[in-house]
Amino acid sequence: MLLAAMLVSFISLAQNRLIINADQGDVRINKHIYGHFAEHLGRSIYGGIWVGPDSDVPNEDGYRKDVMQALINLEIPNLRWPGGCFADEYHWTDGIGDPAERPKMVNTHWGGVIEDNSFGTHEFMNFAKKIGTEPYITGNVGSGSVVEMSKWIEYINFDGVSPMAELRKRNGQAEPWGIKYWGVGNESWGCGGNMTPEYYANEYRRYATYARDYGGNTLYKIAGGANNWDYNWTEVLMKNIPLEMMDGISLHYYTVAGTWENKGKATEFNKEEFLETLRKAALIDELIKRHGTIMDKYDPEKRIGMIIDEWGTWFQVEPGTNPGFLYQQNTMRDAHVAAISLNIFNKNADRVHMANLAQTVNVLQAVILTNDTDMILTPTYHVFDLYKPHKDATLLSHDLKSEEVGFGKEKMEALNVSTSRSADGTVNISIANINPDKKIDLDVVLRGIDAKTVTAEYITAPAINSHNTFENKEVVKKAAFKDFKLNKDNLKISVPANAILMVRVK
Ligand code: AHR
């Protein structure tokens, strides 16, 4: 009794304490929160994913083998394509049939390069199949037409005799693919047509009417939602679009280090800028809450998903690279942004049903960087790898007391946490320690689980700007973590400085 009392008072005195309610929770963390996004932008598709069957780069049917395998290993739940801003300039019929006959176009948004349409619908759908992910296509509302989008869906999904189904068969695909996730335009407030929310809401209703369900497949229709703090956009869409006409509404939020005009460098920054970037990343929590409150007003059951289909860091491009290609390096700072963002998405999983990191390969906060023949996994890749156990797990409530870390004007909690329970009862604890200089001793109280075993993995690095290069690919990599001690329901973890952990208790 005395011992128990002493233990309780010791724990409550601990500066850093996490109490986990392992036997509670009724919200599932949708695996689609761990989704990705690949646009026809820079070397994302061409060179990053697709090199063509005649390339010297080792490939399978034109897809880079190294990238394919890395994405298979990451078990990505869905992949958004073909944009982004590109989606509203893309005409899908240009990307089917004999590749030699496909028309070329200028990719006006991204570097003014020639797009030869060699990667089109079949190449995307086959890629999704090969890497075991669900395709998520964004249709063209900005410069397309209702009939164009409606025929694309017919081409992909119709299972009977129809002009588009016959065309698909002639192009070598007998069976319909049965796509589920469908975006109706992208950033219609900007590159997707500069529309007002009232105008877009009407357009959405028209486009969605002809986005038909075929062969028992039900489309999950995603309306093009707001940017950042544009709460009015969400309000108008929720008010003017009949709820039964949509399943999701998107939200885009990018983290910059400086201002939008001067976004800061990807690898050169000081501790103050590091913390400022993380503070900005964490603002997504407030955005989710405030857009979510508007959605709650119209959809208290939370049936409609908030789909954060573009998020991540956006820095200056690497010196000497095409400014329109958005190629940036990826450091431990990006890893912390990913960890914090994913922890926040998990926490809001009752409303956030999907999220897509921008972007998969060679663009913005990429998980993979390639050169002609080689590939590196970024620190962000390793965070997604560490966080796999959270996918489809039950969100657990917790209470965290964390010391702060501060540089310059900024102060933040040093520890950032998410907790979940897998189907087999394992409790998953993801922890980021954003203090670059200090190891933190964390006391975890495991309530509601008779804990017997603990396993853990982590990433860490000597510096906040540590990153992998083609010369040194494993500066940041996943490793086993052992610095913990389990004593009944108390787990002590020494969380290293500048580290991200996944601790699993069973
Ligand atoms: O991800 C890069 C671009 O950012 C996308 O094309 C666009 O939707 C957003 O503005």
Automatic annotation (TrEMBL):
<dbReference type="InterPro" id="IPR010720">
    <property type="entry name" value="Alpha-L-AF_C"/>
</dbReference>
<protein>
    <recommendedName>
        <fullName>non-reducing end alpha-L-arabinofuranosidase</fullName>
        <ecNumber>3.2.1.55</ecNumber>
    </recommendedName>
</protein>
<dbReference type="InterPro" id="IPR055235">
    <property type="entry name" value="ASD1_cat"/>
</dbReference>
<comment type="similarity">
    <text>Belongs to the glycosyl hydrolase 51 family.</text>
</comment>
<feature type="domain" description="Alpha-L-arabinofuranosidase C-terminal">
    <location>
        <begin position="309"/>
        <end position="499"/>
    </location>
</feature>
<comment type="subunit">
    <text>Homohexamer; trimer of dimers.</text>
</comment>
<dbReference type="InterPro" id="IPR013780">
    <property type="entry name" value="Glyco_hydro_b"/>
</dbReference>
<keyword id="KW-0378">Hydrolase</keyword>
<dbReference type="Pfam" id="PF06964">
    <property type="entry name" value="Alpha-L-AF_C"/>
</dbReference>
<dbReference type="Pfam" id="PF22848">
    <property type="entry name" value="ASD1_dom"/>
</dbReference>
<dbReference type="InterPro" id="IPR017853">
    <property type="entry name" value="GH"/>
</dbReference>
<keyword id="KW-0326">Glycosidase</keyword>
<keyword id="KW-0119">Carbohydrate metabolism</keyword>
